[in-house]
Design a protein that fits this description.
Helix content is about 40%, strand content about 10%. The chain is built from 16 helices and 12 strands. The protein is globular, with a radius of gyration of 22 Å. GO terms for molecular function: alcohol dehydrogenase (NAD+) activity; metal ion binding.
Length: about 500
């Protein structure tokens, strides 16, 4: 039998994902039976974080490192450009624990796992049901006195002891290790802040559960994948921004020297994602529009690279319309009420769910890898860099370069946005470029960078499988167009929360 690709059906025994009805865009109806089968609820189970032993897990240039691939698996780390190797060494529960284990009622953390979204009341009940003695409350240092944070503190009062830890900005591996030590002995961890704060907390919990950080610290690739299962105390993630989706996914961006490295794996998936409109009430219009734009990009690009006819298509088409409508309401000066803020937040996280990823290449959002390195090189925010890269990618797709996705499929989805945003864009001007200027999220300060250096960095950090089939010439052409766009600005766009 021929081997099936990433778009194949789940393996036997893996439950299909049933989209949370609260995630679906308003007015969206069921899109076929395949995406709505009931997911069995797992029984309580104990997650043991196992710390590996052996040699250096760091992958070296031209080699597999001292401990080999199986050794790296025992350490809970495996570079993303290597196939997983099933270790023959049996697991020994309790061996090498560096953090206390806690019985957690949660969904299975397999490929494509994501945190269940709940409201404020459900989050409070979830915490109370665990009867925690000690809660570690990690909060954005700039938001400690924000009105919505008081509600989160009230949830934490069910514990005898609450330790509040203030952090800010994009964290490093050292920061994650330091935070992991402070999370030790906590029964539950509550993280409240933007994407950077949530990423740092997720990585710290994984480090406390036994992840060896040496492979992250010395990574030469842009992506390091953790194979260690979820461990450590349960994590409740309460975002105060929108767009990143960090509260629901198994990804975290961390600083390694002067670079940003993407770390992913089931150990990083929070147990619960809280969508509370009070937490995003203080966001200004610019931050809202940047988050909505990022969610649109994360929906459009995988759609362009996906196959036609999947149930995920209907979700994507409905989602972009609602996201664009929220953006236009904000642009018109409207203030979103709590219900609208919660709906928008759920929609921005929907692109991380298996329901939206059905039939998609997991690495089809190729624009992100270029924007990621461009942000590092220029110091601009990720959204401003996406706004420079997306029109160039659309142009290359229109010229027949299918490696960037189907031009017809991209047009089919961006036309929905254009219909909402007053016919934004045309054949001469890609919709996402025009929308970025309309919403004010494009970079506005003339910005120059070493294109050859960034091209080389993109290909060395994000080669196979992320940019498999994308040539040096293609990356250079896209970055040349992005460079021209960034060189023509008139002021600087705000830096978004990574």
């Amino acid at each position: 039998m021929a081997r099936r690709g990433p778009a194949a059906r789940p393996a036997r025994g893996v439950p299909r994902h049933r989209p949370d009805r609260r995630d679906l865009p308003a007015g969206h109806h069921r899109a076929g039976r395949a995406g709505h089968r009931r997911t069995p609820r797992p029984a309580d189970r104990r997650h043991d974080g196992l710390a590996g032993r052996g040699g250096d897990p760091v992958q070296r240039a031209g080699g597999a490192g001292r401990c080999g691939r199986a050794g790296r698996r025992r350490h809970g780390l495996l570079p993303a450009d290597r196939s997983p190797v099933r270790s023959r060494e049996p697991r020994r529960p309790g061996h090498g624990l560096s953090a206390p284990t806690t019985a957690v009622r949660s969904r299975p953390r397999g490929p494509g796992a994501h945190a269940a979204p709940v409201g404020a009341r459900e989050a409070a009940r979830w915490l109370a049901a665990r009867e925690p003695r000690r809660i570690a409350f990690v909060v954005d240092a700039g938001l400690r006195d924000a009105p919505g944070i008081a509600g989160v503190r009230e949830w934490c009062e069910v514990a005898d002891d609450v330790v509040e830890l203030a952090v800010s900005g994009l964290g490093s591996v050292d920061d994650a290790q330091h935070l992991a030590a402070r999370l030790d002995a906590s029964d539950v961890v509550v993280a409240c802040g933007g994407g950077s704060v949530l990423d740092r907390t997720k990585l710290a919990r994984a480090v406390g559960a036994g992840v060896d950080v040496r492979a992250i610290r010395h990574a030469t690739a842009g992506h390091v994948r953790l194979t260690l299962p979820q461990g450590g105390p349960p994590l409740l993630a309460a975002p105060t921004t929108i767009g990143t989706g960090s509260e629901r996914n198994g990804n975290a961006v961390t600083a390694v020297g002067d670079r940003r490295v993407l770390v992913s794996g089931p150990a990083l998936v929070p147990d619960l994602a809280v969508i509370d409109g009070r937490l995003t009430a203080s966001l200004d219009r610019t931050a809202w529009l940047a988050g909505l734009y990022e969610a649109l990009a994360r929906t459009i690009e995988p759609f362009a690279g996906g196959r036609a006819g999947s149930a995920a298509d209907q979700l994507a088409l409905a989602s972009v319309v609602r996201l664009a409508q929220f953006g236009e309401r904000l642009l018109a000066g409207e203030t979103l009420d709590a219900a609208s803020r919660e709906e928008a937040a759920r929609l921005t996280g929907l692109s991380h769910t298996p329901a939206m990823q059905q039939g998609r290449d997991p690495f089809s959002f190729r624009s992100w890898y270029l924007a990621h390195e461009l942000a590092t090189a220029t110091g601009l925010g990720k959204v401003a860099c996406l706004a420079a890269v997306l029109p160039a990618v659309a142009d290359r797709s229109r010229s027949g370069q299918a490696i960037w996705g189907s031009h017809a499929r991209r047009q089919a989805i961006v036309e929905r946005i254009g219909a909402v945003a007053g016919g934004t864009g045309d054949d001469a001007e890609p919709v996402m470029g025009a929308l970025a200027r309309r919403w004010g999220v494009a970079a506005t300060t003339p910005m120059r960078f070493d294109r050859d250096a960034v091209t080389d960095r993109v290909l060395s950090a994000w080669g196979t499988p992320h940019l498999e089939g994308v040539s040096h010439d293609e990356v250079d052409r896209v970055l040349a167009a992005a460079q021209a766009a960034l060189a023509g600005g008139t002021g600087r766009a705000p830096h978004d929360d990574c």
